[in-house]
Amino acid sequence: MVLRNKKLDYGEFMREREKVLAEWPTGREVDLDEAVAYHKSLPRAKNWAHQLELVKQNKETRVEIVGMGHATLEQQMELISYAQTEGGADFLGTNVDSYTRLHNYEAAERGVKESEKLGRTVLNGFAIVNYGVVGTRKLIDTAKVPVKIKFSALDPRLINEIAFAAGFTCDGCDALLAFLLHNSKAPLETVLHNHQYITRLQGLYEEKGCPMVTSAYGGLALLTPPSLWSAQIIAQALMAAEQGIKNFTFMYSAQGNLVQDVACARASRKLLCEYLDRFGYQDVKTSLQVHNAGYTILPDDNARAFAVISQLAFVCRLAGADLCSPRSVTEGKYIPLKEAVADTYKCAKTVINMVKDQEIELDSKVLAAESEMFEREVRIIMDAILSLGEGDTVMGILRAVPAGIIDHPFGTHPSIACKVLGVRDAQGAVRWLDAGNLLFPRDIMDFHRGKLAERAKKQGRDVDYDNVVDDIMSPRDGTLLLPFW
Q1: pLDDT at 449 > cutoff 60
Q2: Boundaries of CATH 3.20.20.240 in the chain?
């Protein structure tokens, strides 16, 4: 397979679709023309792109919760209905269960039946393929606001075919997240192609007058400075735009330090637009969504967990994010019940509403310094990716992984270098403990070393791997930094 950042040939794409839709009987329910007609029959209030544009025009911050997925159709409909009526949901999500992500539809079917028998979900998400287009449209009928399909999979094609045909208008797939963290065997070429397929499909809906939104997490921030995963998001935005995407959301992972999160989130939107414009995708509309970093373990105690959610909502408003995406307050303990989801919505929305009309400005010099360092690092990483690909983003990604330019500290695939490592400084901002093969000049690394030296002095010993472990676990205790003793 030879991949390039080039729109997939229509004829070859349609032949591939036939094979994808034949994978499970419900695939036969997908009819593109009929799906387009269904989308056009829906009110604009149910279209993610339309509603997101209103949010941007009004300079608002709205809320969409992570972790909305129950096994059965009835349970998922109840969850969506309750989140709307009791939580005042602005945007809704539907997480897909792990068996479905792995194409084990037989096991998903058993999970559905057991969930029906027990009266509670035993799957960690909705079995969308088993319910197919006809069943899943009942979710869209229940919803009064837009709904996003949310999951990570090496091969998301059939899931997304059914989701889009059923009326979902936003996709949360991410090729690098799937490859870097949920994979030990699949080649990068295969994973990238599968995700090119998804954005090509969304591009077809766009061409037929049905706006779609896609987004990327950049492999998730697992205690990693924001420049690395932000560059990976931008690279995937260029991939998506080439396939016809016209609406792209930058998923910024907040890691807890107020200044770093606000400065880098603001700058990420600027950089995203800069690279899209540079490569001729000026017609792509962009948005910013801020969520809890992937490693954030919410405290077991609900009161402290709500505090973490509240801080995220505050960061979102300061950063000018269009969407705030906190984890459900009980996600760290069990599959969130509808009450927990509604309470999380209410908590985040209340904080945002309390501060939305206030003009709050952090120290401009500190913000500017953080933003400047972030932008420099992102550009260095992007330049390396594009140079390796000789100007082609996809080729650059393929070559950047073995070169250690696209990397992750906890990657699961043997081709990932796993040389980079982040740790918090004395203020809780995430810095490079080891930048691996990233091509940063000495002054950038001196900046990070200087910040870590402040922590070493404060705690009375060198910053090392023990601190990395502490920093990953510290949010569980409701803090960024464990006591220095």
Answers
A1: yes
A2: 10-355
